[in-house]
């Protein structure tokens, strides 16, 4: 492996790389379900945890381990566990650290499937769940209970781009109970723009499907934290509770995608700034939400905890609900699809797509209006993207 005192752009290329037996430039993919023991005693020692080494790929794989080491370095954490999806990472954390009678406190603005996991699934197993607006730190302080075990939030949030103060939430939570696990979904920011563990969070989760892989061809997730917490998540949340194991082939592809994360983000963000400038001048747009704008909730916190503001934005049209749907149906260069962080620009209508599981009251509490649009800005030519938005808006109002 390469030295640890190297800068981020170099880490993206070299961190975690193992020397292989044939000195190949690229690490091999270990496509194997099981690993051979030299003898029965070695197998026993490995199962007892008294000897390092691989046993079975559900418990660990060298290709996956290379990716975990790289991600831990980027997040400035002790260790990392990779999973077969972002929801797999979140679910593994929940099933590791929660039991019947425990309390989970989360923000009102959540990814639709995270919301469903918390409110529709965990509650069936006797876990108490409360959702409050984390933009006001007093809400967090008042909602923590003696049995609170996890405090969970996204920042920036999906899809309203609201930002919560990680340091403040972590401080309030740990002052109430030092054993509370503060978990931050860091997908929108990536470790290059924000590192929650440095700000006091216990765990940072990602959907690696998004920017970390960056090409829209892999489903994966990860969670970073202390070696102790990650060890528990691997042995309980992944091995036993979810079986959410990332394939070696997918780990290899993500390792390859990570190499260009820095230069991709630069282009993503540059395009985003130009599109925001266009949208703010358009007569068809009522409000633009983006952490870099002082009109967006949490801008002050974002300025303190983010190195830059990312490449996802949301905006409310001044059109009717039906016209707004016509608008997203009329884009030609931009792709109408869920997800984000891909090289392609992706547009979606949260109320009818990613957050369709929400009731009208839930949508209102999360700040998701019927005319809210989320746009993940890709790395195409910005002029083409702006022209596409413009023609689709004009077509919608005809």
Structural features, described:
- The protein is 40% helix and 15% strand.
- It contains 15 helices and twelve strands.
- The chain has helices at 8-14, 40-47, 62-75, 86-97, 112-121, 137-143, 166-176, 190-193, 227-242, 248-258, 261-281, 299-305, 321-329, 360-365, 382-396, and strands at 79-83, 103-107, 128-132, 148-154, 181-185, 203-207, 221-225, 285-289, 312-317, 335-336, 346-348, 372-376.
- A seven-stranded mixed β-sheet has the order 1-7-6-5-4-2-3, with helices on both faces. The protein has a five-stranded mixed β-sheet with strand order 8-9-12-11-10, with helices on one face.
- The mean pLDDT is 94.
Structural class: alpha/beta
Element order, helices and strands?
A: HHHEHEHEHEHEHEEHHHEHEHEEHEH
Taken as a percent bin, the fraction of beta residues is 5-15%
Number of strand elements: 12
As laid out across the biggest beta sheet, the strand order is 1-7-6-5-4-2-3
- Give Rg in angstroms: 21 Å
Can you tell me the overall shape?
Answer: globular
Distance between the termini: 60 Å
Low-confidence stretches: none
Level of helix content? 25-40%
Given the structure, what is the number of helices? Answer: 15
